[in-house]
Amino acid sequence: MTHHRRTPRALTRSSLAFVLTSVLGLVGLSACTSLPTGYSDFDPETDFSTFQTFAFLPEDTLFVASPNPVNPQLEPTMKEEVRRALTRKGYSFSEDHQQADFLVGFSVGGAPTARTTVFTGNQRQGYVVGQTRRAQVVTQESTEGGVVIDLYDQETGQKKWMGWAIAEITMGDMKRLQVTVNELVGVILGQFPPDA
Description:
This protein has helices at residues 16-25, 27-30, 74-88, 174-189; strands spanning 3-5, 39-42, 53-56, 62-64, 92-93, 102-119, 136-153, 159-169. By secondary structure, the protein is an alpha/beta fold. Helix 3 crosses helix 4. The radius of gyration is 20 Å and the shape is elongated.
């Protein structure tokens, strides 16, 4: 299910706190779904068909609205996945942000979570008859993360579109981080460009 808001108000980065608070407030609801759900908001007065080239914000590309540290690989992973997704949609990447039609920035917020799994003897392949095995408890720490992708008009600096989603991000597992970022970027940018 997608969500579009067509309110003619300015989309500013200050709305980030509200979005991430709302998004993280839905964490309990998201835990039972296999893929995150993407949402978006945009300026209905903008003609998105004029956007052909993009670049990343030259400074503060990743804004972290969380007291918890994030994996340093999160920002480059986000950039690579967004670049691929927008290129597949027909947009061209520009190394020079001043030559791009729109600029891309990211915001993340998160709340730490922990999942505990108990493995008992009858779940293990190496069980030996007559020998008892104690239960093994495994705890995996992760983060329920809200990710926002912001698109700004390069000439005016005004935010024209934003999309967001939440997912569990296991920051220590780089392979899982890439998969999660790929899923998040896919569902978020699946909302862009907005319907006419």
